[in-house]
From TrEMBL:
<protein>
    <submittedName>
        <fullName>Transferase</fullName>
    </submittedName>
</protein>
<keyword id="KW-0808">Transferase</keyword>
<dbReference type="GO" id="GO:0016765">
    <property type="term" value="F:transferase activity, transferring alkyl or aryl (other than methyl) groups"/>
</dbReference>
<keyword id="KW-0472">Membrane</keyword>
<dbReference type="InterPro" id="IPR000537">
    <property type="entry name" value="UbiA_prenyltransferase"/>
</dbReference>
<dbReference type="GO" id="GO:0016020">
    <property type="term" value="C:membrane"/>
</dbReference>
<dbReference type="InterPro" id="IPR050475">
    <property type="entry name" value="Prenyltransferase_related"/>
</dbReference>
<keyword id="KW-1133">Transmembrane helix</keyword>
<keyword id="KW-0812">Transmembrane</keyword>
<dbReference type="InterPro" id="IPR044878">
    <property type="entry name" value="UbiA_sf"/>
</dbReference>
<dbReference type="Pfam" id="PF01040">
    <property type="entry name" value="UbiA"/>
</dbReference>
Length: 315
């Protein structure tokens, strides 16, 4: 009885909600709102109706990308990851594509409602990168750059949303460039590492990504002066440092294990830690932007995401 209540009907076949959650890596979406908050904080207004609407849009686009990923990867997953929802038969392949299309439409619609033309101006290229990555670029040299670009645009979407909320002030996107670059750098190395989740990686790869992660953490912890030119107060600096340490304490340690033994299992664990490790990194960047209170709340999401990831894999 409970299983039937948890079913969703696509065409003539019911699909369990738990399988759809696994398809879209539902808990991993907790790594998305922080992109928007980091960009919005840099632009001077971390919270507001436009920001919340942009968060919802980005979550929809993230889930769309996950569903599209499994649609595109179905032949490969049938060999390498037969337990996934599509190759296991729990979710039909056409359902994954339908869900990706529906979530993409919802994401673009929310972007238009919350940000108007400016919101769509960021959401459309973001959507294009997500679809291009899943359908064409993933296995090419351009794959990590495409994914990094998508995450960077997600941060800029937050900056644009905050700028729109402040009477369309110009320069909001430019103020989001630093957090966008740091999130994009993290995403680039994470995507490069993820290509070795099955067969393992040469030790030099996780060693390189670990070095980049350490540099990213240092940059995120270095709270920038406010627009008035004043240095950040002790609370802001402390929250930014805590976020950076939380980032290194999860993703960094997982990479250390992968350096010591770069097996597929350890690389896969490092990738999962890197996905969820975005949250404390985003918290550091949000504090860096002058919103330590919002950053502290965001940081509390990380342990929740880790607990949920034990039930639904983020990779």
């Amino acid at each position: 009885m409970n299983d039937r209540k948890a079913d969703v009907r696509f065409g003539s076949r019911p699909v369990r909600l738990a399988d759809l959650a696994s398809l879209v890596r539902a808990p991993a979406a907790l790594s998305v709102p922080g992109d928007i908050l980091a960009g919005a904080a840099a632009a001077g207004r971390p919270l507001g109706p436009r920001t919340v609407g942009t968060m919802a849009s980005s979550v929809c686009l993230y889930w769309a990308g996950m569903a599209l990923n499994d649609y595109a990867d179905a032949p490969v997953d049938a060999v390498e990851r037969p337990q996934r929802p599509v190759p296991s038969g729990r979710v039909p392949r056409r359902t994954a594509l339908s869900l990706a299309c529906g979530l993409t439409a919802a994401g673009l619609g929310l972007a238009a409602l919350s940000g108007g033309r400016r919101g769509l101006g960021v959401a459309l290229p973001l959507t294009g990168l997500v679809w291009a990555y899943d359908l064409k670029l993933k296995s090419t040299k351009a794959g990590p750059a495409a994914m990094a670009g998508a995450r960077a645009l997600d941060v800029l979407a937050g900056a644009v949303a905050a700028g729109g909320a402040r009477n369309g002030s110009t320069g909001s996107g430019r103020r989001g460039l630093v957090p966008a670059a740091l999130v994009g750098l993290h995403t680039y190395t994470l995507t490069a590492l993820s290509r070795h989740e099955i067969s393992g990686a040469p030790a030099r790869l996780p060693a390189t990504t670990l070095g980049v992660s350490a540099a990213t953490a240092l940059a995120a912890a270095g709270a920038a002066p406010s627009r008035s030119g004043r240095r950040p107060d002790a609370r802001t600096a402390a929250v930014a440092a805590a976020g950076a340490l939380g980032y290194l304490g999860t993703y960094g340690l997982a990479q250390v294990r992968a350096v010591r033994k770069p097996s597929g299992e350890n690389v896969r664990r490092a990738v999962g830690a890197g996905i969820l490790g975005m949250v404390p990194l985003q918290a550091a960047l949000t504090a860096r932007g002058g919103a330590p209170g919002v950053a502290a709340v965001l940081g509390a999401v990380h342990p929740l995401a880790r607990r949920l990831a034990r039930r639904v894999s983020p990779t």
